[in-house]
## 1
Amino acid sequence: MSRFRVAILGTGFGRSVQAPGFQRHPGFDLVAIAGSRPEKTRRIADQLGIPEAFDDWRQLLDQAKPDLVSIATPADLHHPMMLEALARGAHVLCEKPTALHRFQAAEMRDRARSLGRLAGINHEFRFFPARRLALRLAREGAIGTARRGEILGRYPIWPTPQARGPTWLSEQSRGGGILGALGSHHTDCFRTFFGEPESVLASVRVDQPRRGPTPAEPESAIATADDGCTLEYRFANGATGLIDLSATAPYRWERFEIHGSTGSLRWDETGYRLWHIAAGSDPEEIEIPAELRLSRREGDPALAAPFAVLVDGFHRALLGEGRLDPDFQDAVAVQSALDAARASNSAGARMRVEIPAAIEAR
């Protein structure tokens, strides 16, 4: 099996989910990691058995010379990091939210295409078993014509000021906020069921503005990035989709529903169980077929298993054995929808989703 050298930029999600995902795959060698704090980064590298640690990501690119760069940093760094990684000959996997706005995302997509590099976006939620089966059943007509989607999410990220101190996630200028963090995944979900959204009416807000102080962090700040959002998408086929998220709830709970002309499909936050509901009937759980099941290792984060599916798909794409899914056109489309949601909130009106056209690949 062909092996590719991987480097990770970022020591948060990059450490907990991405590093094990690449290390467990026989087609990748995780050779380097970069973080902003030298001692912490070196400690993480030693703990994970990563040969090289850097506090300068440009130095990593120059010295480690990876075949694939996985970017798992604050969103405002994605654009410069990806462009430089591409220029040095690497393929790229980028975390979401993709960038600060759709024009950055489009430049990232187009640069990868012009250089003949693979560029993927980490929408690993696509690979939860319940969602994959729901999409298959919807396309097979199991609920008739799919015409409505609803995603409700409650997350105890900032339920009180003392829950979490100020980080980039609270800064609008750095791409923080719940809309980008999870609204990106949920927007991508609706796209797979209904196609590209044509317009959106949105409320994007800060419900709990103060961040900190916490027992470990004496500093406090006022958040500029959203911790709540409500979006109603409209699609070309007449379908509609509702996303309602709050990151100030005291508990975690998610529900996903796709409603059709003859029934509905529903799954919960774990992504491992799916129900079909016909009119006038109780919910009926549907068995997940063997080819869609995921093996969860004890102690792994919830996203480790679906991320492993994405990693395997990226490896096959590098070998020329399949199309990269999701790719950076998906990234640009989602970022464009998020931009329209923010514009709708500012204008107090429904806004069209405008996706920058792609250049022709070489």
Note: Residues 4-124+316-324 form a domain with the Rossmann fold fold (CATH 3.40.50.720).
## 2
Amino acid sequence: MNSLFEYLLRLGDDSLIIGHRLSEWCGHGPILEEDIAVTNLSLDFIGQATSIFSYAGEVEGKGRSADDLAFLRFDREYRNLLLVEQPNGDFGMTMMRQFLFDSYRKPLFEKLTSSKDETIAAIAAKSLKETKYHLKHSSEWIIRLGDGTEESHNRVQDSLDTLWRYTSELFYTDAVDSELESSGVIPSMEGIKDEWASYVNDVLNEATLSVPSNNWKQEGGRNGMHSEHLGYMLAELQYMQRAYPGMEW
């Protein structure tokens, strides 16, 4: 197994899938300003995915392009977190999913800027600027909704209760991570987990939201075991490349 290629797929698939999920809000945002904001978040993630997949194709050395990796794999070949493929639901559900992911992604990119792999460090440095805004945006919405009306509070609490089971996978590690960590390519997840937990708890407290007390966990995305939602998403995401192979804009 090429550990670097595998890790790049995990990083790129997270960006691609959550980017596509956010794109589904285009034209459906609760207010015009937020419709535009969420669409721009989507574009940021798709841009990240393009950079990561381009490098992954070089590392793999089989001539596959960023488009090939994005659009021409089967569902079991995707390595994204289960969290990012979950349906949008209402706006509170989308923002909670985003908040939990952004809170993880920011410290990860901060650490990756010091990677011994210069390309990963450069991608992380560029992506970090966007990610800081993403986290600010989603955090403000969680506080606004959680500490808002009774209905907004209850809805976003339900979203937290639903999505919390997927957060353990944010810090999943295996032989791929161990190899790359020992060579200085990626950081340890322990420090990132601690920073994530501290920040998430602070925001949830301000939002008057309660962390679920159960210990339910759902993992598998890093190994290609996905929820039923990914298949439906890929059918839409991949349609043009499947119908017209090699098509370019």
Note: The longest helix spans residues 32-60.
## 3
Amino acid sequence: MFNDTGDDNRNTSSIDNIKEVGVSKVPEINTNIQFLTIIGEVEGHTLSSSDKKTTKYEHIIPMLIASMQDPKIKGILIILNTIGGDVEAGLALAEMINSTDKPKVSLVLGGGHSIGVPLATASDYSFIVPTATMTVHPIRTTGLVIGVPQTFRYFEKMQERIIKFILRTSKIDKNILRTLMYSTDELANDVGTILIGKEAVDYGLIDEVGGFSQALNKLESLINEEYK
């Protein structure tokens, strides 16, 4: 019986790739744009449970470094559909994206919640589709907390880091941002605010309502301005 080992090897490679980064290997496209996807839960220093879709920050950082070093890459498009996750890892990724000096555009699809907010605002220009949601709320933790006053001060400082980042990477007003974060009207047994599509733009958190084509066109115009 004939066994095509070449196909078997390719299938095995695809399966390994799915296990590693959550997507099958896409065909190589001759483009000057680096596409990054941040989906599911942002995984940090500890592993998330095996039944969760995650984005590992140690995968995204090398891709950003490679994009900076590759002269063929002229711009970066970040696509987000995330529930949030590890605050330190998410903020590290946001800072890395923001400090990349090549043109970059972000697009929120589905959701950009929690630490996904600074990840969305980290780019030069941001889009959100009409049906996407963003949850703005203070950071929180679960489980046993030891040394409550010290832990509270740590969370307070971490919250200020996030607020300052969002303020310098978006057009939202500081007082409005704090009001949205600590609102008690929308989330049951929690504080925060859910913004849907245009609401995020109206508050100055996101630049424009639009989809993939608009985000891609905007990035191409930024690239043309940068390299004209």
Note: The beta strands are 33-43, 54-56, 75-85, 104-112, 125-128, 133-136, 193-196, 208-209.
## 4
Amino acid sequence: MLNLPPLNYLRSFEAAARTLSFTAAGAELNLTQAAVSGHIRALEQYIGGRLFTRHARSLSLTSLGTAYLPSVSQAMGQIAQATETVRKQRGGRKIVVSCPVSLANSWMASVIARFGCDYGDASVTLHARIWEDDAPDIADIILTSRHEMALTRQDIWLWRDEMVVVCAPSYQVSGAVLNDPAQLTQARLIYNLGRPESWNDILAHYGQIPGKPIQSTQTNAFSNALALASEGYGVAAVPRRMVQSYLDRGLLKAPFGQGFPSPWIMTLSDGSLLTSEPARALHEAIINAARNAAAKAH
């Protein structure tokens, strides 16, 4: 067992020797002047010699204190460095991912689940947001849907959204099952407030004249649009990666088949500043998952 004095004695000595003041050392360590003085007396008794010469209004180090200080300062520095290294390593296992709520409920959830099998000790927090500017400052990895005209050099392009028109399998328009784009002008259209222009683009794509729908419903998230559509309350236009699980389970159908490209791009934040190995691995896993999905689509 190491023959060491209590750490709080050494902290008080190092601070007092550096500032040559018990009062200043106490303020730095959040201790009273009397507590620091008591620590020093106890340390002097422990090592068997005086460390300070007490003057009327000041302190000075004795030869013993002068010889002792460098070793104590170095040891305290090493302890602080080792502690910070361990803290960073522990904290480095925590990863915060921020992405649109509809993506969090579908594609992103599956990516994180697969990642967790390889990094079981990494703690991932998935922050699902509704608006682009709702990303937390503490997020390590951020996925954002941007219009192609708003892309920046820092954005990593994951994919271009392929919009798919979907509805419940039994959804009808004027008593007829929806299977013709011409029926959209009579259908209840579910609008996403973040992309209010989407339905005009979709109607134009299918050769219909855009105009005010007879019936409409608005929501602020694609996940809400999917829920409404699956309940038979209208027709939604949603990015394929967000709707695929609904199609696979038969909760929704795509009455017009394949979708079509939109001007909206899913982007990933730059990963060059990520410091932990798990965070870099998840960043790479997201890119690879996007590439694999694109390859399967083609």
Note: Residues 92 and 276 are 5 Å apart (CA to CA).
